[in-house]
Design brief:
The protein has a single domain, classed as Ribonucleotide Reductase, subunit A, CATH 1.10.620. It has 360 residues and is mainly alpha-helical. Helix 4 (90-125) runs antiparallel to helix 5 and helix 6 (165-176) packs antiparallel against helix 7 (180-205). It has 15 helices and two strands. It has a two-stranded antiparallel sheet. It has helices at residues 41-50, 55-58, 83-86, 90-125, 129-157, 165-176, 180-205, 209-234, 242-261, 266-271, 276-285, 287-295, 300-306, 312-321, 331-359; strands spanning 11-13, 20-22. Strand 1 (11-13) and strand 2 (20-22) form a beta hairpin. The longest helix has 36 residues, at 90-125.
């Protein structure tokens, strides 16, 4: 996929696999043009400053969570008609529900740490000061997201899965590439774009209010992050040579296939003692998963078109994946809707807190 220097190909693991080091090499840029601004970025920076939230205070951590309950409706289970699943007893089905929601939240957690590291890299790399300003606010956003998902998993679900190898491959490629725009492309556009749609499932359909609230708050931030990538790249990519644009389009295609395949859930089936290859094949062929996976690209496709990476290779891949139809969607409007939902939720939670305080 992306180019990486020879020094950047190593990987070191720490004791107990609790620490992993990815060797990278990239330039750090100072921006001395303090008076130069890019249209839209300072407005995004001001919005980011005003929309900072504190998960410790604004999320109801005293909410009870039964990890084996039907937090995500059974209709979203791609194995519901799979023979071995239908033979599970009630206790095994409850364990299945616990495992699948914990796996999904675990991938959110790992993806947010990847975003934290990538955005810190953007602060160092990006040549524009206003972009450094906004990226700095996103570093704080991502720290909050890691904190919130980690607390949710450890305190309420008490089960954390390792990072999915497809997701890790894309994050590693994004981190190792020395070109500043590739960090935006891999994280801000691809990974954050899919995350927005995946978060939407929990926000809109989760039965547990705490799980719903965490994802709603995170989505408010993520909508700005995807907008940041779009604003930064759509002015830069028209300046590229055909060869440089081809490299970015190849990265996009390979990255989208990795993101599509990360939802097969092989780690879950292995832990549950189900036949992994059969489950993967069943999930891959299920109509539910086809619809779900294609919907995950509802934010990515219009953004890729907007920033100008819309050559034959990308269009062919998107047609193959069944997601070309999202090209005409309004990515900015989708982001505004995500922010509005989060604001409405915050207003409802604020009213609940005020009512509880007045009753004491």
């Amino acid at each position: 996929m992306a180019k990486a220097s020879s020094e950047a190909r190593g990987r070191r693991r720490g004791a107990g696999d609790e620490l992993e080091t990815i060797l990278t090499s990239f330039d750090t840029s100072y921006a001395w043009n303090y008076g130069s601004v890019k249209e839209g970025l300072l407005e995004l920076y001001e919005k980011a400053k005003s929309e900072q939230w504190n998960g410790t205070l604004q999320l109801a951590w005293n909410t009870a969570v039964d990890p084996e309950s039907e937090i995500v409706p059974a209709a979203f289970n791609p194995l519901s008609e799979y023979g071995p699943f239908k033979r599970l007893d009630r206790k095994e089905v409850a364990h299945f529900r616990h495992a699948t929601i914990a796996w999904q939240l675990s991938q959110f957690l790992h993806g947010e740490q990847g975003a934290l590291v990538c955005t810190a890299k953007i602060v160092q790399q990006v040549p524009n000061l206003d972009a450094k300003f906004y990226a700095a606010t996103q570093v704080m956003d991502e720290a909050r997201h890691v904190e919130a998902f980690s607390r949710l998993l450890h305190e309420k679900y008490q089960l954390v899965y390792p990072i999915n190898p497809h997701l890790q491959s894309l994050i590693d490629d994004t981190l190792r590439d020395s070109r500043w725009d590739m960090t935006y492309l891999g994280m801000q556009v691809l990974i954050e774009g899919v995350a927005l749609a995946a978060f939407g499932l929990l926000r809109d359909f989760a039965t547990n209010p705490l799980s719903k609230s965490v994802t709603a708050y995170v989505m408010q931030d993520e909508a700005r992050h995807v907008a940041f990538g779009r604003l930064a790249l759509r002015d830069y990519y028209p300046e590229l040579t055909d060869h440089e644009r081809d490299e970015r389009e190849e990265f996009v295609v390979e990255g989208c296939y990795l993101l599509r395949d990360r939802f097969l859930g092989e780690e879950v089936w292995e832990c549950l003692g189900l036949p992994v290859d059969e489950c993967k094949e069943w999930v891959d062929r299920s109509e539910l998963m086809k619809v779900y996976r294609t919907s995950l690209f509802s934010r990515i496709v219009p953004t890729i078109r907007d920033i100008g990476l819309w050559g034959p290779r990308v269009r062919k891949a998107y047609a193959d994946m069944g997601i070309l139809g999202y090209a005409d969607a309004d990515a900015e409007q989708l982001g505004q809707q995500d922010e509005q939902v989060a604001r409405e939720l915050d207003a409802r939670l604020g009213e609940i807190r005020r009512t509880a305080a007045s009753a004491q």
